[in-house]
Write a structure and sequence with these properties.
disordered N terminus; single chain
Length: 305
């Protein structure tokens, strides 16, 4: 019996790892699709939920998915697929995973994806309230980080790795991830307040570095595109220096590449007049930066195997 159980368990762990990685990638794609819904102002193209124009969501004809309906209904369908994949992952974890905390984390991910679906429905039923829509975006970012945690924990390298000795770097990565999540929430509030172009120029604001007049939209825009972005960029540069000093050159260069790409996408979003594709890529880039900092912090701290 023992000789046959080990290969079976190893195969199961491989399946679990593939599922976890697939879920993380699918979640990133879903974040991009969700951004396209917002960027194209398609949030209420399908005015009812959970049905679609009174029909079963999964029975809605594909030929009628045109315009905003394509983005909104497509978002619902892909989100459902992510939810189903999460359920499959939970089942796989409880069959093949020995560690209780990984099983618990998978259940936590399932709870989050269910709550995320409810928040998405509430945004439609209550006509896109800023608080609920922003919470929907924020929870999406947290769920994405959770999928990255599951993908890391399912890997063989995670089980064999040790925590880094440079504690200041560990705390720095966690701090960077926390601020990146804050910046994500600020971006969501700005986006759902339709303030993405409240300051239509960059880097100067209406001809100066600080606006001469203020409104709620201008304040949110300035807070996200200038203050938050500047602080996050500074934190990332500091982390890059720390990584280089710890002889983690590849990781430092990767962080720099993600940061530069995200800054360029942010500038192009403003300069292009917030073209939907550019704005959505910027949101996805923010998720990649958050995920990079969060995952690096996980591997650096390694407080649980």
């Amino acid at each position: 019996m023992p000789t046959h159980s080990h290969p079976a368990r190893a195969k199961g762990e491989t399946v679990l790892q593939i599922l976890a990685i697939s879920l993380a990638v699918a979640t990133l794609v879903l974040l991009f699709i969700g951004a396209m819904v917002t960027s194209t102002n398609s949030g209420l193209s399908v005015p009812d939920w959970p049905s679609t124009f009174g029909r079963n969501m999964f029975a809605y004809p594909l030929r009628e998915m045109k315009g905003g309906i394509f983005y909104e209904h497509g978002h619902r369908l892909f989100a459902s697929a992510v939810g189903f994949l999460t359920m499959v992952l939970v089942i796989a974890a409880w069959i093949w995973e020995k560690r209780r905390w990984v099983k618990g984390l998978s259940v936590g991910a399932l709870i989050m994806v269910c709550l995320q679906g409810i928040l998405g429905g509430l945004t439609v039923r209550h006509h896109l309230p800023i608080a609920v829509s922003s919470a929907h975006a924020g929870l999406a970012a947290v769920f994405f980080c959770t999928t990255l945690w599951l993908a890391s924990a399912a890997s063989t390298a995670w089980k064999n790795a040790s925590a880094w000795k440079a504690q200041p770097l560990v705390y720095g990565l966690w701090g960077g991830a926390a601020f990146s999540l804050t910046q994500t929430l600020l971006g969501a509030m700005m986006r759902h307040s339709y303030a993405g172009l409240a300051i239509p120029t960059f880097p100067r604001a209406f001809g100066g570095w600080i606006p001469d007049f203020w409104s709620r939209g201008i304040f949110l825009n300035f807070l996200h595109t200038r203050v938050g972005a500047g602080v996050l960029a500074t934190l990332c540069v500091i982390l890059m220096v720390m990584l280089f000093r710890q002889r983690m050159r590849a990781l430092g260069l990767a962080l720099g590449a993600v940061l530069v790409l995200q800054i360029m996408l942010g500038m192009l979003t403003i300069w292009s007049g917030k073209i939907p594709l550019m704005a959505s890529l910027h949101l996805a880039g923010g998720a990649v930066l958050l995920g990079f900092l969060f995952t690096s912090g996980l591997w650096a701290g390694k407080w649980i195997r």
